[in-house]
Design goal:
about 140 residues; Rossmann fold; two-stranded antiparallel ribbon; 5 helices; globular; disordered N terminus
Length: about 140
């Protein structure tokens, strides 16, 4: 299988270095109207995406085959902190990125849970691409160190 870069640009830390030999596995738990935004933002990152609109099937998929990344809308997941703990109990290097409204008072606690990053809705394509590339770049740069 062809190697995938950790990001789609030659940003800091990445330098276009091949660090993966398999597609990035992602589970999205999003309302239907956000699925296209997630797929577009993830396209340059060589991903395999499983999309869900309800928590039960998404949690079953996460438990059965823990993904590299979970993108979850806070309106569909009552307790994102618990989701972060669940994902990390199955895969210590697993990432959870919450999707929240702009100017949400929940943003800072969710950033703490999610390793410093969140995605905002309504989606802005450049923000989603930049945030995903940055989060994954930090993750794979740290794992190589």
């Amino acid at each position: 299988m062809r190697s995938a870069r950790c990001c789609d640009t030659d940003g800091p830390g990445c330098g276009g270095v091949a660090v993966r030999t398999s597609p990035l596995r992602v589970v999205t738990l999003l309302p239907r109207e956000l699925h296209r935004a997630a797929a577009d933002a993830l396209a340059p990152l060589a991903t395999a995406i499983d999309q869900f609109q309800a928590p039960a099937p998404a949690l079953g998929r996460i438990e059965g085959a823990p993904p590299d990344l979970v993108i979850a809308d806070v309106d569909l997941v009552p307790n994102v902190s618990q989701l972060c703990l669940f994902v990390r109990s199955l895969r210590p290097d697993g990432l959870v990125l919450p999707v929240i409204c702009y100017w949400s008072e929940r943003e800072e606690p969710l950033r703490d849970c999610a390793g410093g990053s969140v995605l905002h809705k309504p989606p802005r394509a450049d923000e989603w691409r930049r945030t995903l590339a940055s989060v994954l770049d930090r993750r794979y740069t740290a794992s190589r160190a």
